[in-house]
Amino acid sequence: NKPNWLNDLGIQRPESPAPTPWRDLKLKDGAVTTWNNVIKFDDKLQLQQISMQNGKKIMSKPLSFEINKKSIFTNASSVKWQAHPSLVSGTCSVQGENWNGELKLSVDYSGFIRYTLKITAQESVVLNSGRLSASLGSVDFINRNDGTWSNIGAVDLNVQNTYATKHLYNDLMFGNLNEGILFFIPKIYPATTSDFDNNCIVATKDGKLELNFIQAELKLASGESHTFDFATAPYPVRPAEINWQKLRFRAGKNSNFDLVWQTSPMMKYCGSLMEQSDDNASAEYLERATKYQMVYQIPTYILESIPQWSYFAKKWRGQPARAYDMGVFGPLPKGDFRERTWADLYIKTMVESLKKVPWPGVYYDCFGGDIFASNGEKYMPIFELRDFHERVYNAQRLNNPNSLTMSHCNMVGTLMTFSNVFLTGEQHRGKFLTHKYYQDFMTLDCFRYETATNIGPDGMLLPQYRHKENVEDPALTAHVMGMATLHNLMIYPNFIVKKTELAIRELQYKLGMDDAEFYGYWLPNPDGMSTNNPEVKLSYWKTPRGCLVTVFNNKKEVVEFEFSTNYPHKTAEFFEPVSGKVTKLEKATRLKLEPYRPGYITLKP
Question: Are 151 and 272 in contact (CB under 8 A)?
Fold first, then answer.
């Protein structure tokens, strides 16, 4: 039977205006102007250059795309363009040795650039190699994601000049803190999650990123076809919104931001569908709730107790075999977001629910990439997932354009485009089972690359202590809070000591964050804020009412130092968060910090 929930709500059409906060696209002479970039192509669809809004050009060479060591652009026809407000697209034919092909390109309002090459053999042909190569002018790192929590994250190319791997990471970030490119690769040939015999990804400090997407002989009989599909995008992917100034998550008396979790009695289906157990009771709760009250959702999992379960149970196609046990609610297995009828049901339920109970925001859990299996292939359906991200983002805002989205994900992935805040840190859960400090398993630079890169949405850090003695240790809470404040991250206060984290956050809110400016330790600052010890890192917030300075010991031993500044101030106090002790600072006062611990200096003008 045909489902009665089919709909087009939230679907972004090429001819529709670009959604907020982006702008409509413009095309002129092969140059696509987005909200933040001018992306230039030649008449054969070869990406030539990406210019940022400030005029900075980030590519040192045009994009290289080769099959059997020959450029596909050499024998390509002139492009045929189609321009719409939300999508610019182009097609051209390409000719290789014993094969012909169709090359398609699209650029959307956020700057997401997708290439699709369909090759058809004119006679029997063997494709031995395929290579994509992008060259940037300035890079510091490559950040990697494959849908797991193992061996992912940033690699510092200032330390390791060349990074090479035989493992396919489907999502890549390559650049520096201010700008760079993202790469999205659903699969290469052969489509497997096993490591290959040769390197499939190579990144170098001199700005070259290479993807070798044919890792075995690809034999095509006459008339047989094969399609290669990938995407790239400059970052940031959305305008900065400075949510860290206004959002105060579970901050005691200062709180204006909270979350109704999936196990709340209000949640009828644990967030699998956005339905309340009692709309009236939920609406009454919302009237008493904080200003930015969010509700939990998990759109890529489907609770087996929803009324429509029998319909979907027969339709899933090779989805990952993952499930949560929700007790009396039943199992919550991974669903197949590629199934249009599931997307329709989820969207319809969301839109109707938000009309009844207008939650100011939504928190999305487990909404990132995963490996699926189909026809003997294993791959990450990135483009289908991104379409779902986009549709959910649009549908959430049909009734409230100012609705807030927080997503649980690391920095690399398509979900970043459609989030106001990203919650990160759980990828390190395994590490914290055996370690106590971030510096035990990663450098401060890599932590910064993973959390403070200018991707667009604001970051929130989720602590990962699980052992009781660590969860209850105020010194470890101070460490996590120091890492957060040092990088201007909001905090999700789980698995840490409430008294300690609130004492630190109280300093922020007492100063006032609404009009604060942030200066990270990696940036020049206008107030001469410094210490005489290079291992003591310093970041600060500045307001008309004064400054709050984080000083952080990045060494595994006690350090002493002196703090200095040319910021004119009448009073200066040093707060040690574990003891709670406040000390008045005089000029040349010697301060002490325990290993990997912060202290806080308040300056009043």
Answer: no
